[in-house]
């Protein structure tokens, strides 16, 4: 615990104390060192108490903690070109907000006490809101901030009420102790209401199709670091919360969850169809996140060994690949000042190496075997088929549309004829290749050893 806490505090201090000329380099190197140290959490077995048992690290939280630490350095690398032209005070404030957001997310993943988890879960909204509304590109960023705020607050009130009721009934909010307490009250309607109230907040955060409207708006208006953190780690807080609550409840909640599982699978299909109709690059990638998270929701509800392992693998691989897609979208946007797909076509002629990154990211996103996305989706689809044979129809159609929009994304942004206005663009920098390598290479390495995430 202290191995990462002390460097994180040092990183927050360095934001204000580092010399202006070497600000970005120093902080990127520091965050890469933290990411390297955090990989020791892969070997956590059982529950590891970190601080008076308020913070713990176990098999569910450790891969997500590593992902959060790993994505800090790429967010700084991606923001460097745009932000380095601003006054130094603004640069420091921006970096501080990003690191504070990552630190809050880390604490949320570590929290053993449910009330501490709730506080950290909600605290992540404040830096996110600041990043979107202060550094967003367009005037609609205020509307995106309002959507984010009200959707999240709506779900959170139900969660807070549920936690207060749970403490009143059982006398504890410790997740470790609560695992043994569910036997008495599972069948009561009061516990069913509690279960529903808990899940509302997590389903909004995922987000479930139907309460997803805040996500495309937030992604489109956020600066690159905001989009990367939102797709990479913040959406995973919802999945993590569902997995934690699933441990406390037993299988008697599976029958009330059946309509939700079916709805989330239809959400996967509908959002995949919507992706095929998008004209905005960032909006397409945002809707693809809704599609992937729908599978995670369905798998987390079923609660078999394979479905939980599959949802964990899909969350981690989605965090890397979706963040990489946003980085690629940003490289195009910084040079052309547009996100409209029809105006970006033919980029492969100018930037063949970037087209190779695009192809790899698109193939990993559509779950090409033997990618981590494929391993996760296969585990989820197997457990869904065991739950009900009819799910094969919906998931089969979803796979077809996922393949279609991934290829559409690559084809419409890289192939076709080059428009006349794109013939004089800045070359791609080494920094951007390093940034993409930090996303794609870990995803490829996980193919060799996927049991790290099981």
UniProtKB/TrEMBL annotation:
It is an enzyme of class 7 (translocase). The keyword Transport applies. It is a multi-pass membrane protein. Keywords: Electron transport, Membrane, Mitochondrion, NAD, Respiratory chain, Translocase, Transmembrane, Transmembrane helix, Transport, Ubiquinone. GO terms for biological process: ATP synthesis coupled electron transport; electron transport coupled proton transport. Residues 1-107 form the NADH:ubiquinone oxidoreductase chain 4 N-terminal domain. It catalyses: a ubiquinone + NADH + 5 H(+)(in) = a ubiquinol + NAD(+) + 4 H(+)(out). Its EC number is 7.1.1.2. One of its GO terms (molecular function) is NADH dehydrogenase (ubiquinone) activity. It is found in: Mitochondrion membrane. Belongs to the complex I subunit 4 family. Core subunit of the mitochondrial membrane respiratory chain NADH dehydrogenase (Complex I) which catalyzes electron transfer from NADH through the respiratory chain, using ubiquinone as an electron acceptor. Essential for the catalytic activity and assembly of complex I. This is NADH-ubiquinone oxidoreductase chain 4. It comes from Eupsophus vertebralis (Valdivia ground frog).
């Amino acid at each position: 615990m202290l191995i990462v806490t002390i460097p994180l505090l040092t990183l927050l201090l360095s934001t204000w104390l580092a010399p202006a000329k070497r600000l970005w380099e120093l902080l990127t190197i520091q965050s890469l060192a933290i990411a390297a140290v955090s990989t020791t959490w892969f070997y956590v077995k059982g529950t590891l108490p970190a601080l008076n048992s308020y913070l713990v690290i176990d098999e569910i939280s450790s891969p997500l903690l590593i992902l959060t630490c790993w994505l800090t350095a790429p967010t700084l690398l991606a923001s460097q070109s745009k932000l380095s032209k601003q006054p130094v005070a603004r640069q420091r404030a921006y970096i501080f907000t990003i690191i504070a957001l990552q630190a809050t997310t880390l604490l949320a993943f570590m929290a053993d006490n449910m009330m501490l988890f709730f506080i950290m879960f909600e605290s992540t909204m404040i830096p996110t809101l600041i990043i979107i509304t202060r550094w967003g590109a367009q005037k609609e960023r205020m509307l995106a901030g309002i959507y984010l705020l009200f959707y999240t607050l709506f779900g959170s009130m139900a969660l807070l009420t549920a936690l207060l009721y749970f403490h009143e009934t059982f006398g504890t909010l410790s997740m470790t102790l609560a695992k043994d307490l569910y036997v008495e009250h599972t069948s009561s309607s009061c516990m069913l209401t509690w279960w529903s109230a808990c899940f509302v907040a997590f389903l909004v955060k995922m987000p479930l199709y139907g309460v997803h409207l805040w996500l495309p708006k937030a992604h489109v208006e956020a600066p690159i670091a905001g989009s990367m953190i939102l797709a990479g780690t913040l959406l995973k807080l919802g999945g993590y919360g569902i997995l934690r609550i699933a441990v406390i409840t037993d299988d008697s909640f599976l029958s009330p969850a059946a309509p939700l599982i079916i709805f989330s699978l239809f959400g996967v299909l509908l959002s995949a169809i919507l992706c095929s109709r998008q004209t905005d690059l960032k909006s397409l990638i945002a809707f693809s996140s809704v599609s992937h998270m729908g599978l995670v929701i369905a798998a987390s509800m079923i609660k078999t060994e394979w479905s939980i392992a599959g949802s964990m693998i899909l969350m981690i691989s989605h965090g890397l690949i979706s963040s990489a897609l946003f980085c690629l979208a940003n490289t195009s946007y910084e040079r052309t000042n547009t996100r409209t797909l029809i105006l970006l076509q033919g980029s492969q002629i100018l930037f063949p190496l970037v087209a190779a990154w695009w192809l790899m990211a698109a193939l990993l996103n559509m779950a090409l075997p033997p990618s981590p996305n494929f391993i996760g989706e296969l585990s989820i689809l197997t457990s869904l088929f065991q739950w009900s044979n009819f799910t094969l129809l919906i998931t089969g159609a979803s796979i077809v549309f996922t393949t279609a929009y991934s290829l559409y994304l690559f084809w419409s942004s890289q192939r076709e004829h080059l428009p006349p206005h794109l013939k004089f663009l800045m070359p791609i920098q080494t920094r951007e290749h390093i940034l993409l390598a930090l996303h794609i290479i870990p995803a490829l390495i996980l193919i060799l050893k996927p049991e790290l995430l099981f």
